Amino acid sequence: MIPELDHPTFRLAVAQFDQVAEAMNLDTNLRERLKTPQRSLLVALPIRMDDGNVRVFQGYRVQHDSARGPSKGGLRYHQDVSLGEVAALAMWMTWKTALAGLPYGGAKGGVTVDPHTLSLAELERLTRRYAAEIFPLIGPDKDIPATDIGTNQQVMAWFMDTYSQQVGFAVPGAVTGKPQSIGGSLGREEATGRGVVNVTIEALRRKGINLEDTSVVIQGIGNVGSHTAKIFNEAGARVIGISDVTGGLFNPKGLPIDDVLQRRRSGLPLRDIKAGDHLTNDELLTQECTVLVPAALSEQITGNNAERLRCRILTEAANGPTTMEADAILNDRDVFIIPDILANSGGVIVSYFEWVQDVQRFFWNERDIRQRLHTIITSAFHRTLHFAEKKNTTMRTAALMNGIDQVAQAHTARGLYP
Asked: Is 108 a catalytic residue?
């Protein structure tokens, strides 16, 4: 492993890949290539702060693979962002887009910063400088960034504008997750959460569980977690637990989700909302429920807490929330796991829709977007389930095998240059 990439999340991504590549008997030469990102860019971002001082931030953009098309991946602003973490997320995005059948490779970007400590003006200067620094690597035919943890529609608007200023004309397809006024797509903000619900409903049907009898616990109340909670609630499931950085809120009778989300949008932390019992995040994960949805950061479910989980279905809305040790424990306990590269692929699927609409200058209605998302993600679910049953393996192994195989076929067809 390249020393600069050594990070727990990257080690997890590589360990998953090695395990599956061995089971597939993947060509040794391809294994070495696919374990190493195609390109990794580190950039220094000097920003003039509001007090007049200059502060230098560290930025990254990693393109894991582009054999199947331009690379695609989010832009993360978080204090723990590192090259290894970004490289792992880019690798997972490669398998994710291939599993969904999208004509992309995987990429990821990030800046090591807590965005909550910046003013709006500082955040804009940081975004524009980052966009200018990685400009040579990006574009609608090369690499298309999108929103992720710590970024939003406004950040993408600044990014798109900076890119467009560099080329001299508006390029809506340079990023996805933008406001609709500059080429954003209907349904994009909720897409990951809606995809999470779509695949979970398919798993519930497979298990013979009625949605009305389903209790759901969600770790994380960011964009993905909040939309997942709202859509589950609208579908008729009972959301009994949810959490933010201050801890969890739990009510076995069901939380008033609309009220809780409205209070959170007003800036009230969950610890100050009186709608149930207040728990730690770790305590919330171990509450009895039908479906557990980790929708926060990676490696939340480990060998230390996997034995204490009391869910029948684990739907991974976050990237890499389950360690290899925990994965083995949960499989032994017959917990049905919907792996991250399948469960949270709704975001990149609708990002693909946004990119297509921008390129064609023809925009779809929300009903079409929801139907097409449902068709693609449930098709990927059933392909993965069928393969898992046929090969007597886990859903994670089946999903990774499918995605890796698609990328391997592309490399074999294209050959090695020069």
From this structure: yes
